[in-house]
Input
Amino acid sequence: MPTQFTVVPVENGRKPHWDADVDDNNVFREEDEDAPFPGDGMPKENSPFINNTDNDKGSLYDGTNLALFEEEMDSNPMVSSLLSKLANYTNLTQGVKEHEEADDDEGSAKTKKPVQSPALGTLIGVYLPCLQNILGVILFLRLTWIVGTAGVMESLAIVFMTCSCTMLTAISMSAIATNGVVPAGGSYYMISRSLGPEFGGAVGICFYLGTTFAGSMYILGTIEILLTYIVPSAAIFKADKEGEPEALLNNMRVYGTCCLTLMSLVVFVGVKYVNKLALVFLACVILSILAIYAGVIKSAIEPPVFPVCLLGNRTLQNHDFDHCLKTMEVDNVTVTTKLWSLFCESADLNATCNEYFRLNKVTEIQGIPGLTSGVIKDNMWSDYGPIGMLVEKKNQPSEPAVDTTQDIKLPYVVNDIATFFTLLVGIYFPSVTGIMAGSNRSGDLRDAQKSIPIGTIMAIATTTFIYISSVVLFGACIEGVVLRDKFGDSVKGNLVIGILAWPSPWVIVIGSFFSCCGAGLQSLTGAPRLLQAIARDGIVPFLQVFGHGKANGEPTWALLLTAGICEIGILIASLDSVAPILSMFFLMCYLFVNLACALQTLLRTPNWRPRFKFYHWALSFLGASLCLSLMFISSWFYALVAMVIAGCIYKYIEYRGAEKEWGDGIRGLSLNAARYALNRLEEAPPHTKNWRPQLLVLLNLDSDYAVKHPRLLSFCTQLKAGKGLTIVGSVLEGTFMTKEDEIKKSEQNIKSSMTTERTKGFCHVVASSNLRDGFSHLIQSAGLGGMKHNTVLMAWPGTWKQANDTVSWKNFIETVRETTAAHQALLVAKNVDSYPTNADRLGEGTIDVWWIVHDGGLLMLLPFLLRQHKVWRKCKMRIFTVANMDDNSIQMKKDLQMFLYHLRLDAEVEVVEMQDSDISAFTYEKTLVMEQRSQMLKQMHLSRTEREREIQSITDSSRSSIKRKNQTGASGCSESGPSRTLEESQEEEAQLIHDKNTSSHVALNDKADAVPDRVHMTWTKDKFLTERNRNRAEASMGVRDLFNMKPEWESLNQSNVRRMHTAVKLNEVVVNKSQGAHLVLLNMPGPPKSRGGDENYMEFLEVLLEGLNRVLLVRGGGREVITIYS
Output
């Protein structure tokens, strides 16, 4: 139903004033800022106009009626400008016309010519080109042989299957072709823009190969007509009957190569000559068809005389004899004929003759009995046979001979190849190809969306009628033995279809010769341009060289490649062998045209609005199924080869090809599949057996918005190996309106780093008023539905101790709390810049797991996943767990080994026993310094003067406390001396206070480390008594220490002292056992429930990890992630 528009004048409106120096096309400036596809000379496909130019200028609005929208005029044009642009739309003619104009302009000043509107209608633009491409060499050279071999019924089945396939494909193609403008490229363009660059490139190359091999087939047909029916004496290689097939193939190779060279030169010199001869070639086809029908009518009235000689029921080659007689009377004398000499040793009547010749009579029948003869009854059913089988008339009497060894050397008509139904399907199918000719010329049509469906479907209907009627009429008019005679040897070497034509067989011979020549030239013209279109799209990198050509755009390099591939088909030399090859490629092309239409219909994308309405997804699927069936019916071997070629090209484009966004159906299908899968995932949480870390990687960016720690992405890649979900996120401080450009730059940098580190996943950068809220938003909202992260990976805030960094450690602790609240696992990588890259290969070493508390088994799973990657493959897994005094460590080790056995994990097990010990002086000093620093951090909001006073007071307090400690002599003079030296050089900064107080107690730590016997693997009774006595002695010394000093220690928070004691003692054990490990995995303690001790929590973790290189802190998400069950 047409849409009606009414133009209503607006009162008090004035004509807008346009700047005289500015063209009125600037409303489309934003559409044209991006360059088109490299080298294809085509505009952007997301633009609504084909002929946008880069010289479009802006239009400035200076009116009053639409002043409300004046700020949007740059990006949103007025409707009047839009309609004006559409009214002036012209589509350049495609194909070789531009090259013809370029040839005409060479040597003269190139002036811009006014573009003429396309003027071709349905008849000239679509119907006749399709007719010319469909009717061709198979009709003239093989259809009669197919009818004679397969019979009328099976031939009709072949025609029905193949024509149904092309009709269904034409319906699908019409829907796609009328869903917008189809530029040059025809089927390649339709498939690539409907199914994406991978399928488009694969099928486009298959279509190119099919078109190229079609050129080989037409050239071989031309040479076969030339050497068999026009100039048989021109054969270079000659042989007797036994070697005749090989000699014919050699002749085809020599003459075919010469013909290909000549045709390639014609195409190279000027395609315009080929186009001017197209009408002549079409006239030859039409006249030949008319001559056949005229001959059928003539045969019903007066059948032509073409006698066929039979010996018994065997058909004889009628080349070397004139009379179908053994003997004849000449002047009342019985003499032998030339036929006698072919079967006997001499011309004498008493000569020894072939047994079958002696037993059977020679009879002569008419090769064309006529339409009313009833011969169709004999031709109704098939007559397949092996290679070398004699062509025999079934109802003719015959006496069999005992010796048949010499039959191959005698002038019988035999099968040159083994025949069967599927072979004939493959040979016949090229005769129904060519349905894309109309869509390839869409730019030349006056109304492509009307002409393409009507012209293509009418051409297929016409040719289907011609083929069906030809099958029936051939079976009704021609003798069966003549139909099965492929090269017309029984009718003196005439073309079988030619002897039926009227007025002369030469009409068909000359017509088919020029028809094949024209079809070959058109294949050599179209195939290079198809390859050039694929190369210029840039989706197959190694083909880009073929996108170049002469100055006028002629695809010279593509023509050379086409000629080379065409030569391969010519070297095969057999028309019957080449036909199934191109059948595969065309069938694959048609298969994907049908799939494209079905996919677009089922997805119901908003842009799918074809003007051709007589389509349905079921018809498209039926057509695709029929194409696939015909591929395997014709030749399962060639079908598999074609699929492998297409599959390799698909994977190559997917791996190396340029990324293109064409709004294709595969992307829509992926979206639908993703939506369906997400809905299914939403139904229930994943089972423990399906659990794998779905990572949210929190990145920090530097001032240039580059990734600070790219090794974090490397570690993510090694952990994931491309499996599961990976979301890489970061936060910028600010609002989205002010940080839009920075966000885009950050995402580009992150994606570049992900590509470099081979991290497969998604990137997400958000803007937030502060980093803490931004990371919180990512943790809460990253992912979609069931595809949400369950694990957060981040780097340890290495600068948290610096005085100017008061935020990082707070953000870190809040992130820990939020992941715990969200029941998500947390991985914190310390010293991440020292982690291995993807190119590194770690040698023999260990991944040490310190299993302190059970948090779902994530500690066990992570080393297993890491060892799947080649970086960590040679590393062994060691699991350490801690036993207390009252634990049975031997039983713990056995239980842990059994647990790992059931988990199917290979790891060494070690149980580390830690006895209860008193808190050392070093622990107290470490706690004291920590609380002093905490007090300082709480005062950071004071003014600078107040802050300096506060820092000074803390410094003085620290000095006085250490002096009092030194006076007691508890630590010895050798330990206090270095401390006093360091104290004298103390600065006023809080960081230096912490560092120097820490260094002042290194000796205490060394003293603690000097007792290696305090960590044991197993307990015995004697060892237990010895240890208990030593502990009592040390306890008494500790009691004396409590009375000797530390008045300031008494005010310490005892909870902090205990936590520090745990960190110090556990650090001693871990460093002792795992300092040389490639990676240490450790349970991460949870943050305090009260936020007042957050800064102390960071100190605890720092002490726990001190002295270790690569550490991964692991905090489980509160659920089991590993199971012993299958």
